[in-house]
Amino acid sequence: MNNALLLVDLQNDFCFNGALAVPEGDEVIKVANQAIHNFRRRNQPIIASLDWHPANHKSFAVNSGTQVGESGILNGLPQVWWPVHCVEKTQGAMLHQQLEKEYINKLFVKGCDCDVDSYSAFFDNGKQNSTGLNEWLSGQKIERLTILGLATDYCVKYTVLDGLRLGYAVDVVIDGCRGVNLRPNDSNNALLEMQAEGARLLKLEEI
Ligand SMILES: [Zn+2]
């Protein structure tokens, strides 16, 4: 089965000292690099998503007159209000310095439309627009995705769930993920939901 590695949002703003730092976010970079080497050895594609927002993105609390960490509605969709993060072309939006990014075959950006957030690497939250990821994977005849990254309870979760719904077999590398945990169990619950929908939860040593 053709297998691709998908690295979700391994960007500075989600790591230590970043604008939306995920606790222990940096810990996943070494796991990502090991996974990259495994996939390179097998000649299988390595792809990555980038959260890539215009500065006026309305998911930013400051642009919507709301409070960071609270929830509301953005254009009819549930929305958590975030600090300004991953603004396109800024240092915060760049891939983590220690990630061996030279081996990434293809990048997909998301969250580029200021009116809608995009947790999934496949579609915006309203499922109106595709990032091109599904089309690219189809073209490469990929049937299985191995996914890790940030954050477990948002972008990893929605990417995994969309991947399963689109018919991919999905493996989640749990030691390669960390969560925001606005509520303490959010990441654990997200992993259980992914598993219930058909994802396999694996450790790095099992991939
Ligand atoms: Zn974002």
Automatic annotation (TrEMBL):
Q: What class of enzyme is it?
A: hydrolase
Q: Which UniProt keywords apply?
A: Hydrolase, Metal-binding, Pyridine nucleotide biosynthesis
Q: Which Pfam families match?
A: Isochorismatase (PF00857)
Care to name a GO molecular-function term for this sequence?
metal ion binding
EC number assigned by the record = 3.5.1.19
Which pathway does it serve? Cofactor biosynthesis; nicotinate biosynthesis; nicotinate from nicotinamide: step 1/1
User: InterPro entries annotated for this entry?
Assistant: Isochorismatase-like_dom, Isochorismatase-like_sf, Isochorismatase_Nicotinamidase
Name the GO terms of the biological process aspect. Answer: pyridine nucleotide biosynthetic process
The Isochorismatase-like domain extends over 4-205
NCBIfam families of this UniProt entry?
A: PRK11609.1
Homology family: Belongs to the isochorismatase family.
Q: What is this protein called?
A: Nicotinamidase
Its organism's taxonomic lineage begins at:
Bacteria, Pseudomonadati, Pseudomonadota, Gammaproteobacteria, Enterobacterales
